[in-house]
Amino acid sequence: SQTIHQWPATLVQPVGSPLSLECTVEGTSNPNLYWYRQAAGRGLQLLFYSVGIGQISSEVPQNLSASRPQDRQFILSSKKLLLSDSGFYLCAWSVIQGVYGYTFGSGTRLTVV
Amino acid sequence: RKEVEQDPGPFNVPEGATVAFNCTYSNSASQSFFWYRQDCRKEPKLLMSVYSSGNEDGRFTAQLNRASQYISLLIRDSKLSDSATYLCVVNTNAGKSTFGDGTTLTVKP
User: Fold this and answer.
1) Which of A109, B22, B24, B74 could form a disulfide with B61 if both were Cys (CB 3.0 to 4.6 A apart)?
2) Closest-CA residue in chain B for A95?
3) Which residues of B touch A107 (CB under 8 A)?
4) What is the spatial distance between Cα B105 and Cα B82, in angstroms, rounded to a whole number?
5) Neighbouring residues of B94: CB distance < 8 A, sequence distance ≥ 6
6) Distance CA B78, CA B88 (A)
């Protein structure tokens, strides 16, 4: 069966520090991978998605970047965090662009202080 | 106007009650629809897909009304464990997914 791992679960980082969140998927090949962010009490905002190694699409201009160095690995990064980067970050995978829904990782709660 | 709108609630209902949520969408080209459940401080989990003919899974029934552009989720015989936030998701045929902000349900003893 397919599983998705995301870490760390919680992170407190100072403003201006770098960020690296990692997500890996097991049990499937060539998944579509996504990074979402959820503000408190709000829905999910798509940040990046990838349909293959090295292929990244950005949905919202921001202080973040994403990379997919391997088929089942997706990384979210920032060189310098802003206070507004705080939120709940969720990695997800799907087949065929979410036609059958998404499976989410357990999320990373990021607080920038 | 948001692409996908949900009543945020909260809906506070007693155990055993029947409760229904609606989710309206603005893009008439939307093709597929889902309900997700999200527990507090956890990731969303797929609850059910919503088919044109409607579908039922135990105490949960989902329906789609294309003419009025909304989907609904009906929960019968509510349990304490049904307390959560319910997110609707609407996909276009271009593969774009839009999440609603969620409806919060609290089931009380």
Assistant:
1) B74
2) B95
3) 42-43
4) 7
5) none
6) 19
SS (H, E, C) chain B: CCCEEECCCCEEEECCCCEEEEEEECCCCEEEEEEEEECCCCCEEEEEEECCCCEEECCEEEEEECCCCEEEEEECCCCHHHCEEEEEEEEECCCCEEECCCEEEEEEC
Other Cβ atoms within 10 Å of B24 Cβ, number? 20
Contact B105/A at CB under 8 A: no
Structure tokens at B77: 């015989």
Residue-level length of chain B: 109
Q: Is the pLDDT of residue B31 over 90?
A: no
- Closest chain A residue to the Cα of B97, Cα to Cα: A98
Contact yes or no for B95/A98 (Cβ under 8 A) = yes
Query: pLDDT tens-digit profile of B45-69?
Result: 999 999 888 899 999 999 999 999 9
